[in-house]
Each structure stands twice: as structure tokens, then as C-alpha cells.
TrEMBL record:
Biological process terms in GO annotation: cell division
InterPro entries: cREC_REC (IPR046909)
Top-rank taxon: Bacteria
Taxonomic lineage: Bacteria, Bacillati, Bacillota, Bacilli, Bacillales
Residues in Cyclic-phosphate processing Receiver domain copies: 2-86
Keyword field: Cell cycle, Cell division
Name this protein carries in UniProt: Cell division protein FtsJ
Length: 113
């Protein structure tokens, strides 16, 4: 199981796999079991944004277990949250904000079994 961080600019937190664009994010969602997906909205001038990623996820029915929205775009966060809230399966957890620091720490340093 992997954790995916979609962002065109920010550094990827430890414990996550970085996706810089829509195509990389969708490939990871389709090829791997994804626990945490953290989404940005603005993905570079002229490139598909986070809302387009959400639309593609819904169309493909490719969902992670948990979705967080780390974008600094208030309007983008609102649109992504509303669309996901209406369309996601019940088993998918949706948080209207970034991954909390405690969870970031847990994902960066998973417990050894």
C-alpha cells in the first residue's frame, strides 16, 4: 500500500510517492492500492488542475482509502471537496484540509511488524 502526494511544486513528504500531474496521479491510483492521497489544486499553468484529477478519479472509480486537500487555493479546495463529497464511495474518508502532522509523522516512520 502506498501514499500519494499530488503537487507540481512542493516537496514530497517522507512516506509518500510524488505525483507531479494528473497522469502520474491516475497511474498510481490505478496500479497500486493507495491509502492516503493528498491533493493540490494548482498544478501549473496550462496543465489539468486538481478538480480535473477529481473528475478523472470519479470517472475511473479509482479511489484511495483517505483523501486530504493540501492546496492553498480556497476556491479549488471548495470545488474538489464538494465534488468528492457528492461522488465518493462511503468507505472513502474525505478531509477538507491537509494531512495532520501526527499522521505525516506516522506515515514517515511506519511501525515495524
Amino acid at each position: 500500500m502506498i501514499h500519494v502526494y499530488l503537487d507540481d511544486f512542493r516537496a514530497c513528504p517522507p512516506g509518500f510517492v510524488l505525483a507531479r500531474n494528473l497522469e502520474e496521479c491516475l497511474l498510481l491510483l490505478q496500479e497500486y492500492e493507495v491509502d492516503v492521497l493528498s491533493l493540490d489544486y494548482d498544478l501549473g499553468w496550462g496543465f489539468p488542475n486538481g478538480l480535473e484529477v477529481v473528475r478523472a478519479m470519479i470517472s475511473l472509480r479509482a479511489y484511495p482509502k483517505r483523501i486530504f486537500l493540501h492546496t492553498s487555493s480556497d476556491a479549488g479546495r471548495k470545488h474538489m471537496y464538494e465534488m468528492l463529497y457528492q461522488q465518493k464511495p462511503d468507505h472513502v474518508a474525505l478531509v477538507n484540509g491537509p494531512v495532520p502532522p501526527e499522521l505525516l509523522m506516522e506515515l514517515a516512520h511506519p511501525a515495524k511488524e
